[in-house]
Amino acid sequence: MAATGTVTLGTSPGATGGDPRSTEKPLLTGSEIVCRALEDEGVDTVFGYPGGAVIPLYDALPRAGFHHVLVRFEQWAALAAEGYARATGKPGVCLVTSGPGATNLVTGLADAMLDSVPIVAITGQVIQPLIGRDAFQEVDITGITLPVTKHNYLVSRIQDLAPTFKEAFHIATTGRPGPVLIDIPKTLFLQKHEYAYPDSVYRRGYQPTSVPNMRQVRLAADAIKKARKPLIMAGHGIMLSGATDLFREFVEKTGIPVAHTLLGLGTFPESHPLGLGLMGMHGHKHVNDALDECDLLLNIGARFDDRATGQVSGFAPNAFVVHVDIDPAEIGKNVRTDVPVVGDALEVLKLLMPEVTEGRHDDWMAWIDSRRDRALDEALEERPAWPEPYTIIKAIAEATSGEAIVTTDVGQHQMWAAQHFGFDHPDRWITSGGLGTMGFGLPSAVGAKIGRPDLEVWSVIGDGGFQMSSNELATAVQENLDINIAVINNGYLGMVRQWQDLFHAKNYSEVKIGAPQFEKLAEAYGITGITVRSDAEIRPAIERARSIRGPVLIDFVIEPEANVWPIVPPGAANSGMLHQQRFEG
User: Fold this and answer.
1) Which of 252, 292, 484, 502 is 20 to 30 A from 179 in CA distance terms?
2) Active site includes 581?
């Protein structure tokens, strides 16, 4: 659902019209109302950057009951809010000014929209008499963000402020989660009105389905009982619904192996015998082979993204498809579905569990195991002169016992981390999935660490993406955050170079990227920098970083032309994936 426009709310619980001077309740400024609304929603952190249209709101922040984190660029406010939301399960909040402040949020909102992350974004707007007159720092941010928000508002009356916030948080966190934007003219921050926060929200046009149709659940159960080679496609929706514990019970009861989408990593332990690992473009060979062979594909909480399916006509060609999703628009959109089940993953699993029987699929599991890429596994044990990317990822996983939150940017390092960290816990893998936003890794780590200070946080990022958001080192220092940053440094825009290598005759066009000496850059920000140039230095550097309180940056200088294997070529089905020995041999 996406909507926009000037908001004039009707009578809502707790919202009153008329002359506020006729009540005995104290009058609050619009700025104070915003702060009170955030407090009543349980918000403890806001990521933001001040500017002209929100100066009155920032005037009220010192008296507010939440912490403001000053980022170094507005886009990072949105991505930090995403990291916070993904790590905590609570909505993230960001706050910026009008004009360029608001437009700089757009990429972060699009990222949250595609990955179904609950965000409430607050933007300032010019004073009401100047709206539509091309005033200084005026843009139509509700119009701009219409395609990349679940809903947005331009508030026109101060009495609508509190009800708007109540509704915004409700929409952001229910149904399929997503970003909601509230645009507030500077005029409203200065006006006064009584404060009354609604107890509930009712919007006739917004009634998401959480509990599924029982007939569809029984059809899904019947398909599971009949299958001989079943496979589960585990998506982000399992995590978003809080269903990971019940999902594990379901998997163990039915004995069905689990393939993970990129954002589904952590929904089921990869170390479990039924956990197969990553599927799709850079998925494991045995996982994609299982997709080709399965006779039932049970998709729970994923949207059949093209990076997961490859060429749709060749995706799971033998499978009867059951698709569980809270968003009915996703069912049948990309892949033909035999049994659609619309509902929240947790609610679906609650109803499905009593309908399925205990099961084992030993022959099927043995076949999947026989399809593992043993040659690649052996290659990973080699110790080359350069620090090996797989070894770096595995060393971080071993040092942290797999308990750390890992954030990434986008590219080769992201795929190496997804393939080889081995995620056994929910809400520990934070990456940009649908939008593929470079610069995501460091600001999302800031948000994740603030949201979960009890957990170790590692940001695994490339040298290209890091140079987009390296200014967030200043935020990490200012907030005294204990974040470890692993830069996988190959001197290239690695994933683009890999495609040019494999599919464009090694025409390395504009992918060689220079960089500062990252160790010295870290020192300039007042933090510890470490450079690693050999495999032998990997583990000592990781242990040193873990022993230091505060941000630490490790520059892992790897082989410039290291590739991610396997890979599904553009336009090919998953069955056409290329393997290192096949491609280079």
Assistant:
1) 484
2) no
